[in-house]
Design a protein that fits this description.
149 residues, alpha+beta, 3-stranded antiparallel β-sheet, two-stranded antiparallel ribbon, 5 strands
């Protein structure tokens, strides 16, 4: 099964390309920027771990299917604006990952290329989120959202 064929309409979660990369232990590669600035695999982990500062948002987008334009729903795990979070650019997460695993780094002309194992990253960072659900943030949000039934 291809990583991008017949996927979920969700950017993250089961049957997403991110989960399929983890299942195959694909290499995550960042070209030109440090990996902490590009590793959107973190957002897949946020969804899996159910962070309270995000929610699933639906987007209706026109897509051409068999020469016919159809409006299709897609879903993305987005930040709750009312939480007023402050991101730390994955510094804490990568520091935790590097305690047990490696990020490979090489020069590429005047730039860099960095890589890591998606399976190792998922395994390590889900445990980090289990200990600190706000690890992706500089500090826990001042405003927290609670829903009562």
């Amino acid at each position: 099964m291809a990583i991008c064929a017949n996927t979920s309409k969700h950017a993250y979660g089961p049957e997403s390309p991110f989960q399929r990369m983890i299942d195959r232990n694909a290499l995550y590669v960042s070209i030109g920027l440090p990996i902490e600035l590009t590793i959107s695999l973190v957002h897949h982990i946020e969804l899996v771990m159910g962070v309270p500062y995000r929610y699933v948002k639906e987007f209706i987008h026109p897509i051409k299917v068999d020469n016919e334009l159809k409006n299709i729903a897609f879903y993305l795990y987005v930040i709750r604006r009312e939480c007023q979070i402050e991101r730390d650019c994955n510094v804490n997460i990568l520091n935790e990952f590097k305690k047990s695993y490696s990020v490979k780094r090489s020069s590429l002309g005047r730039s860099i290329v960095e890589s890591l194992s998606t399976a190792e990253f998922f395994q390590a960072i889900t445990k980090v989120f289990a200990k600190n659900i706000y690890i992706w943030l500089k500090k826990p949000p001042k405003k927290r959202i609670s829903y009562q039934q």
